[in-house]
Amino acid sequence: MTPSKAFATLCGRIIRDGNIEEYPSTQHRNKKIILCSQLCLDSFLEDPSVLCKVHLKSEKTAEQIQAELTSVLDSWKKFYDSSK
Length: 84
Fold this sequence. Notes:
Blueprint lengths: L6 E2 L5 E2 L9 E4 L2 E4 L3 H9 L1 H9 L5 H21 L2
Antiparallel strand pairs: 1-2, 3-4
Helix pairs in contact: 1-2
Protein backbone atom coordinates (compact mmCIF):
# COMPACT_ATOMS: atom_id res chain seq x y z
CA MET A 1 0.00 0.00 0.00
CA THR A 2 1.39 3.41 -0.99
CA PRO A 3 1.20 6.04 1.76
CA SER A 4 -0.88 9.12 1.03
CA LYS A 5 1.00 12.33 0.34
CA ALA A 6 0.91 14.96 3.08
CA PHE A 7 -0.44 18.37 2.13
CA ALA A 8 -1.11 21.73 3.75
CA THR A 9 -4.32 23.75 3.84
CA LEU A 10 -4.35 27.53 3.38
CA CYS A 11 -4.09 28.02 7.14
CA GLY A 12 -0.95 25.89 7.29
CA ARG A 13 -2.60 22.85 8.81
CA ILE A 14 -0.61 19.78 7.77
CA ILE A 15 -2.81 16.86 6.73
CA ARG A 16 -0.73 13.71 7.00
CA ASP A 17 -3.15 10.91 6.29
CA GLY A 18 -6.13 12.47 4.54
CA ASN A 19 -7.40 12.29 1.01
CA ILE A 20 -6.86 15.71 -0.58
CA GLU A 21 -10.00 15.23 -2.69
CA GLU A 22 -12.13 15.08 0.48
CA TYR A 23 -11.16 18.61 1.56
CA PRO A 24 -12.94 21.72 0.26
CA SER A 25 -11.01 23.59 -2.41
CA THR A 26 -11.33 26.36 -4.97
CA GLN A 27 -9.27 28.13 -7.60
CA HIS A 28 -7.80 31.53 -6.76
CA ARG A 29 -5.35 33.42 -8.97
CA ASN A 30 -4.73 30.28 -11.02
CA LYS A 31 -3.85 28.20 -7.95
CA LYS A 32 -5.78 25.46 -6.21
CA ILE A 33 -6.52 26.54 -2.64
CA ILE A 34 -7.25 23.76 -0.14
CA LEU A 35 -9.13 24.60 3.02
CA CYS A 36 -9.70 22.59 6.18
CA SER A 37 -13.50 22.94 6.38
CA GLN A 38 -16.60 24.06 4.52
CA LEU A 39 -16.85 27.04 6.90
CA CYS A 40 -13.35 28.18 5.90
CA LEU A 41 -14.21 27.70 2.22
CA ASP A 42 -17.39 29.78 2.62
CA SER A 43 -15.40 32.52 4.38
CA PHE A 44 -12.74 32.42 1.69
CA LEU A 45 -15.29 32.67 -1.11
CA GLU A 46 -16.96 35.61 0.63
CA ASP A 47 -13.71 37.61 0.70
CA PRO A 48 -10.49 35.80 -0.28
CA SER A 49 -8.25 38.74 0.61
CA VAL A 50 -9.30 38.69 4.28
CA LEU A 51 -8.62 35.00 4.81
CA CYS A 52 -5.32 35.20 2.90
CA LYS A 53 -4.14 38.17 4.99
CA VAL A 54 -5.04 36.43 8.25
CA HIS A 55 -3.15 33.29 7.31
CA LEU A 56 -0.21 35.17 5.86
CA LYS A 57 0.31 36.47 9.39
CA SER A 58 0.37 32.92 10.69
CA GLU A 59 3.31 32.00 12.91
CA LYS A 60 4.40 29.35 10.40
CA THR A 61 6.60 30.46 7.54
CA ALA A 62 6.60 28.79 4.14
CA GLU A 63 9.98 27.30 5.01
CA GLN A 64 8.62 25.84 8.26
CA ILE A 65 5.64 24.33 6.48
CA GLN A 66 7.89 22.88 3.76
CA ALA A 67 10.28 21.46 6.37
CA GLU A 68 7.37 19.86 8.23
CA LEU A 69 5.99 18.38 5.01
CA THR A 70 9.43 17.02 4.10
CA SER A 71 9.77 15.45 7.53
CA VAL A 72 6.35 13.82 7.27
CA LEU A 73 7.05 12.50 3.78
CA ASP A 74 10.42 11.11 4.89
CA SER A 75 8.73 9.34 7.81
CA TRP A 76 6.09 7.85 5.53
CA LYS A 77 8.77 6.69 3.08
CA LYS A 78 10.76 4.99 5.86
CA PHE A 79 7.59 3.32 7.15
CA TYR A 80 6.56 2.22 3.66
CA ASP A 81 10.04 0.90 2.81
CA SER A 82 10.25 -1.05 6.08
CA SER A 83 6.88 -2.71 5.49
CA LYS A 84 7.83 -4.25 2.13
